Amino acid sequence: MGKGFGRIEKRRQQLEARKDKLQDLNEMIPWRDLGQVLDQLPRPERKSKAGRKAIDVVVLFKLLILKHLYNLSNEEVEYQAHDRASFRRFLGLSGEAEIPDATTLDRFEQRLREANLIEELFEQFASFLRGSIPAWN
What predicted TM-score, i.e. pTM, was given to this entire model? Predict the structure, then answer.
């Protein structure tokens, strides 16, 4: 391993030691519980089996969380997810992973609204935060 890789690894370890708020959030929230609510969302009909596979609904919901936490537009949250390592870590995506685009996020949010799930999801999210608030400060 070259000197450059050693510095990168050291920087990664320093960031891990600091634990950003998004890392804390990932540890506080039982995403599987929210995933069970998200599983109630009707899946859009696929026109063919060709093409890329469906994006994990928990990743899409986490993008909505980021959008609301940071007061971002769909376009800006897409850009920030590409640009910020902390956002990718929060989403559980590697550096090479495809980030859902703004249109995909918009369609997902519309589907949640049409299924009357968005309020329930954000209320559950908020209740998990209320139960963990000392760790969030």
Answer: 0.78
**What 3 state SS string does 4-27 have?**
HHHHHHHHHHHHHHHCCHHHHHHH
Chain-centre distance for alpha carbon 2: 33
Number of folded domains that form the chain: 1
Cα–Cα distance for residue pair 125/80, rounded to 1 Å: 22
Asked if 81 and 91 count as a contact pair (C-beta separation under 8 A), the reply is yes
Q: What range does the domain containing 28 cover? A: 3-45+52-136
Token pair recorded at residue 69? 């936490």
CA distance 99 to 134: 31
Q: What number of other Cβ atoms are within 10 A of residue 76's Cβ?
A: 14
- Pair of tokens at residue 108: 């997902």
* Distance in angstroms (rounded) separating the CA atoms of residues 35 and 62: 11
Predicted confidence (pLDDT) at residue 24 exceeds the cutoff of 70: yes
